[in-house]
Every structure is written in C-alpha cells, then in structure tokens.
C-alpha cells in the first residue's frame, strides 16, 4: 500500500506531437534497449488551450465529407424516425445531432448509431 507503480508506456505515445506531451516522473518514452542520453531531454510545458492546426501552404483547406446533413430524415433502431439537426466529422467518425419526436436532441456517432436515411 502507498507504493507508486508505473506500467510500460504505450508505443502509441510516440505518435503524439512532442509539443503536446508533458512528461512527469523519471520514466521515459524510449523503447527498452535504447541508450539513454547523457542529459535528459528538456521538458516542455503542455500548451494552454486547444492546439492550433495549420494547413501547409498551397494546400486547400477542405472539410471532410459527411454522410448526413441538416434536414435529412433518419431512422434509429431505438428512437425511431428523426431529423438531422447537424452533422460534423469527429475523429474519423461522424457526429450527428438528431431530434426524435418526444425526445431531446441526441448526439450520436454514425458508426455506432447505425442510422438509416429515410426517403420523403
């Protein structure tokens, strides 16, 4: 009791941008067997607020395509038929806000909600 135990850092941590990582404690993100440098790397404070995203010069900023748009009529297995209020890309998925009769607006991920478009 009262002991601190650290697990092995996930290899996926290496995919994160360095400026978004705040290191605490003595463990590092280097793989086992890699030589330690003579001096530990400088620690950067985590940025305040949301990180900004930049678009490379010359590349047009495009909005990822979505399957649903405001006004689409959809059917959900539990809530029945509803109308899409908004739809936006969300981390490789699509977040869809739908209003169903007698319900508050529902925020749904398209991949989990299995919404079907209804004609008419």
Q: What secondary-structure arrangement, pairings included, does this model have?
A:
Elements: E1 73-76, E2 80-90, E3 93-99, E4 106-109, H1 110-113, E5 116-117
Antiparallel strand pairs: 1-2, 1-5, 2-3, 3-4
What report would you give on this structure?
With 120 residues, this protein is mainly beta. The chain has a domain at 73-117. The protein has 1 helix and 5 strands. The chain has one helix at 110-113, and strands spanning 73-76, 80-90, 93-99, 106-109, 116-117. It has a 5-stranded antiparallel sheet. The longest helix is centred in the last third of the chain and has 4 residues, at 110-113. It is elongated. It starts with 72 loop residues before the first strand and ends with a strand.
| Rounded average pLDDT | 76
**Which sheet architecture does the biggest sheet show?**
5 strands, antiparallel
- Given helix and strand content, the structural type is mainly beta
Order of helices and strands: EEEEHE
Annotation, overall tally of beta strands: 5
Helix content: under 10%
Number of helices: 1
Distance between the termini: 63 Å
User: How much of the sequence is in beta strands?
Assistant: 15-25%
Radius of gyration: 22 Å
The general outline is elongated
In the sheet with the most strands, the strands line up as: 4-3-2-1-5
Low-pLDDT runs of 5+ residues are none
């Amino acid at each position: 009791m009262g002991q601190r135990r650290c697990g092995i850092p996930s290899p996926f941590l290496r995919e994160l941008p360095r400026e978004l990582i705040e290191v605490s404690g003595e463990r590092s993100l280097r793989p086992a067997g890699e030589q330690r440098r003579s001096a530990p790397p400088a620690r950067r404070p985590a940025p305040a607020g949301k990180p900004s995203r930049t678009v490379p010069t010359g590349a047009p900023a495009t909005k990822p395509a979505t399957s649903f748009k405001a006004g689409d009529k959809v059917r959900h297995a539990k809530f029945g038929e509803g109308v899409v209020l908004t739809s936006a890309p969300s981390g490789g998925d699509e977040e869809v806000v739908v209003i169903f009769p007698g319900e508050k607006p529902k925020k749904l991920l398209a991949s989990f909600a299995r919404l079907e478009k209804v004609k008419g």
